[in-house]
Amino acid sequence: MRHIFVWTICLCVFVIPSLAQSGSSHPPLPTPKTDSPQPMGDEDEATARIASDMAKKAAKERVAALKHDTDRLLKLSVELKQSVDKSDENVLSLDVIKKAEEIEKLARSVKEKMKGPN
User: Fold this and answer.
1) Are the beta carbons of 77 and 110 closer than 8 angstroms?
2) pLDDT digits (tens, 9 = 90+) for 53-84
3) Which residue has the higher pLDDT, 114 or 1?
4) Residue 107 lies in a domain
5) Does residue 87 form part of some domain?
């Protein structure tokens, strides 16, 4: 019985006044989300158009670089095949190893470009 009395006093002295003070600072209610976007101003439209144009230009440049790199990759592969055909079973030329390394490096580059921008 004594515990209930002590808890009641603590409630009246500490908890209720702190609730009264913090009662005025309720968190703001969330604003309802609308499905329609906010109307864009002229500056926003221009910025969006410029960003879109830049993205398109970057994509075109990436595709052009990919075409160039894959052409180079094909050429190196053909050269590697010719070099391997010319070598015999006892000798592997340094040129063959260099071409293989260059192909490997270029293939990794093509792979990263195909993934696109991060």
Assistant:
1) no
2) 999 999 999 999 999 999 999 999 999 999 88
3) 114
4) yes
5) yes
Task: Report the amino acid identity of residue 12.
Answer: C
In a domain, residue 84? The reply is yes
pTM score, whole prediction: 0.55
State residue 21's pLDDT score: 52
* Domain tally, the chain: 1
CA–centroid distance for 104 within its chain: 25
End-to-end alpha carbon distance in the chain: 67
Domain, as residue range, for 66? 58-113
Contact 76/102 with Cβ under 8 angstroms? yes
What is the model's pLDDT at position 19?
Answer: 46
CB 75 within 8 A of CB 67: no
Rounded to whole angstroms, the Cα distance separating 73 from 67 reads: 10
Percent of the chain with pLDDT over 90: 43
**R_g of the chain, CA atoms, integer Å:** 35
Closest CA to 45 of 53, 34, 55, 57: 53
| Residue 22, in any domain of the structure | no
